C-alpha cells in the first residue's frame, strides 16, 4: 500500500520539472530565464490554481528586454493541465 501511495504522489507532484516551466516562458517570448525557487503540492497556497501541482518562481527578460519576475503554475500529471504564467 505504501508503494502505491508513493507512486500516486509522484505521478501527481513530480510530473513537471524546471524544463517545463522554462519551455512555457520561452514559448511566450521570455528570455534569459532563471528558475529561482520551486515547490509542489498545495500550489494554490503559493498563488496558483487548485489543479496546479507545481509552481516555479522565475526571473526573465520580457520581449522588450526588461527584467521581470514570474510565477509559473503547472498542472499535476493526472490533471492534464499545462502551465500558466503569472506576473508578480
Provide the number of structural domains: 1
Mean pLDDT: 82
Radius of gyration: 14 Å
State the low-pLDDT regions, or none: 3-8
The geometry reads as: elongated
Helical segment count: 2
Distance between the termini: 40 Å
Walk me through this protein's architecture:
Strands 1-2-3-4 form a four-stranded antiparallel β-sheet, with helices on one face. The protein has one domain (2-87). The chain has two helices and four strands, in the order H-H-E-E-E-E. Strand 3 and strand 4 form a beta hairpin. The protein has 88 residues and is of the alpha+beta class.
Please summarize what this structure is.
This protein is an alpha+beta fold. 25% of the residues lie in helices and 39% in strands. The protein is elongated, with a radius of gyration of 14 Å.
Topology:
Elements: H1 2-13, H2 18-27, E1 31-40, E2 52-61, E3 67-75, E4 83-87
Antiparallel strand pairs: 1-2, 2-3, 3-4
Key features?
88 residues, alpha+beta, four-stranded antiparallel sheet, disordered N terminus
Amino acid at each position: 500500500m505504501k508503494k502505491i501511495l508513493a507512486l500516486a504522489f509522484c505521478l501527481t507532484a513530480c510530473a513537471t520539472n524546471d524544463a517545463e516551466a522554462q519551455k512555457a516562458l520561452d514559448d511566450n517570448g521570455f528570455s534569459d530565464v532563471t528558475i529561482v525557487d520551486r515547490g509542489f503540492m498545495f500550489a494554490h497556497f503559493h498563488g496558483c490554481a487548485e489543479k496546479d501541482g507545481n509552481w516555479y518562481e522565475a526571473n526573465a527578460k520580457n520581449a522588450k528586454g526588461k527584467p521581470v519576475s514570474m510565477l509559473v503554475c503547472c498542472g499535476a500529471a493526472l490533471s492534464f493541465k499545462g502551465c500558466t504564467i503569472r506576473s508578480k
